[in-house]
Amino acid sequence: MPFELMELPYADDALEAHMSAETMRFHHDKHHRTYVEALNKLIRARPLARLSLEDIIRESAGSNSNEMRKIFNNAAQVWNHDFFWNCMRPGGGRPRGELARRIDSTFGDLDAFKKQFKEAAAEQFGSGWAWLVLDGEKIEIMTTPDAELPLVDGRTALLTCDVWEHAYYLDYRNQRPAFVERFLDNLVNWEFVASRLDSAAGEGRAGRQRTVRKRA
Ligand code: MN3
């Protein structure tokens, strides 16, 4: 079964005040679609085609083969974009509960988190992604170049912002920091971010319980 382009979880003009329908049509309908179609073409008739998207990414990560690099880049960009669309919703909001507590205890407060995230996103040289991730027990900000993504290092993505120029050039021209600021203030779906933290914490607990049972 070939991979399909994920449908946006909102209308293409739903984020219009901060991300225009024109950007959405280029970014989702053209850029994202191109990654999906390229991936399907590259894996056709390969055993890899039977794997999940995440397993294709793990299998192809770090390969020296040119063909496998192409597979990694396209598979990772499909995953990154699926994740990015889910990280946004019209109206944004504020983190609550455990997520809000973790942000406060790690960064000081939400504003300090936003400042650090924005700085990291601005400093990512060239195309890439800014992330909030769970690494073991701690949450942290990181960036990756090109199509690279945290799951390859065993980190759990909680939030991402696409900082390739195609994500902001139509609306913000060359002003990446302005785009990231509007993203953080107005677009982040914090409930989705919290759900990622909750499920990762659940898996962590299950893993520890399994370990305990094995020892006993
Ligand atoms: Mn993009």
Describe this protein's structure:
- The radius of gyration is 18 Å and the shape is globular.
- Strands 2-1-3 form a three-stranded antiparallel beta sheet, with helices on both faces.
- The model is unreliable at 210-216 (pLDDT under 50).
- The protein is built from eight helices and three strands; from the N terminus they run H-H-H-H-H-E-E-E-H-H-H.
- It is 55% helix and 11% strand.
- Bound molecules: manganese (III) ion (MN3).
TL;DR of this structure?
The protein is mainly alpha-helical. Helices cover 55% and strands 11% of the residues. Helix 2 crosses helix 3 (66-86), helix 4 (97-107) packs across helix 5 (110-123) and helix 5 (110-123) packs antiparallel against helix 7.
Strand fraction:
5-15%
Q: Class by helix and strand content?
A: mainly alpha
Pattern of helices and strands: HHHHHEEEHHH
Estimate the global geometry from the Cα principal axes: globular
Specify Rg, calculated over alpha carbons: 18 Å
Mean pLDDT: 94
β-strand number: 3
> Which distinct ligands sit in these coordinates?
manganese (III) ion
Q: List low-pLDDT spans.
A: 210-216
Discrete helix count:
8
Compute the separation of the termini in Å: 43 Å
Largest beta sheet: strand ordering: 2-1-3
Helical residue percent band = 55-70%
Largest sheet geometry: 3 strands, antiparallel
